Amino acid sequence: MTAQMKYYEMHDNKYIPGRWHLRMPLHEDAEDGEEWFDIWRFTEGRVLEIERPIRLSVKPAGIALEYTESVGIPVVHRRVVSRFERLGFQKEVQFIPVDIEGQTEPWFILNALQVIRCIDDARSEEVFYWQPEDGRPEKLGGYKNVRGLKVDPTKVGDAHIFRPWGWKVVLVVSEYVKQAMEADGITGIKFIEA
User: Fold this and answer.
1) Phi-psi label, residue 18: left if phi above 0, alpha if psi -120 to 50, beta otherwise
2) Pair 10, 176: CB distance under 8 Å
3) Cis peptide before 132, with omega less than 30 degrees from 0?
4) Less CB within 10 Å around the terminal CB: N or C of the chain?
5) What is the pLDDT of residues 11-47, one digit of tens each?
6) Nearest Cα residue to 189 out of 52, 55, 83, 38
7) Confidence of residue 2 (pLDDT cuts 50, 70, 90)
8) What is the pLDDT of residues 68-102, one digit of tens each?
9) Arithmetic mean of pLDDT over the chain
10) Closest C-alpha to 165, from 4, 43, 70
């Protein structure tokens, strides 16, 4: 019998000394320079058609990391793109080019193309649901908050990168992806077992 695959939340390691911090994505050609990009589109689990260039400013400036999040949206260096291509996961992710202030190398937003109903409520530390008294009937019964997220591996199938249905603020990767990123020495990532 083979061991069941493990899964990990993939986060931006905010505690790296001297690191850069990316600001909110903006449309590059906005007339006043301050038109924000709709970041929630990156949690829908589908290929996006981006009509206008996206740019990111850096504040404070510092060491560029190969994996960073801008308001929760993964921004990656071309080395991460190359790793995913070598792993053969092109159907699981979309890489959207972005311009980053002061950078000449290629950078991309990592858009996970799958949302999977896989949260293991019983094993997760705490799970809170929207209730009638919350006054949000459109969210009734859905996840309001999840702490200590645990994934049910039997519900994931052969996916290696995805967002959990109902709690799409988290990006989850397989142990296979985690090991590949660590072997490549990709900077900026923090993994939490899910």
Assistant:
1) left
2) no
3) no
4) N
5) 999 999 999 999 887 765 555 555 566 778 888 999 9
6) 83
7) very low
8) 999 889 999 999 999 999 999 989 999 999 999 99
9) 90
10) 43
> Around 9, how many Cα atoms within 13 Å sit in the side-chain half-sphere?
20
What are the tokens at 18? 């001297």
Enumerate the β-bridge partners of residue 105. Answer: none
Domain boundaries, the chain: 7-193
Say if residues 173 and 161 touch (Cβ distance below 8 Å): yes
Strand partners, 98: 107
Task: Say which amino acid occupies 33.
Answer: G
Between CA 96 and CA 88 the distance in angstroms is 17
Distant-in-sequence, close-in-space partners of 66: CB < 8 Å, separation ≥ 6: 76, 77, 79, 80, 186, 187, 188
- Which of 116, 108, 147 lies closest to 43 in space, CA to CA? 116
- Three-class SS of residue 67? strand
Instruction: Please provide residue 40's backbone torsions phi and psi, each rounded to the nearest 5 degrees.
Output: -65, -20
Q: Model-level pTM?
A: 0.89
The Cα 38–Cα 154 span in angstroms is: 33
Closest CA to 172 of 141, 150, 146, 142: 150
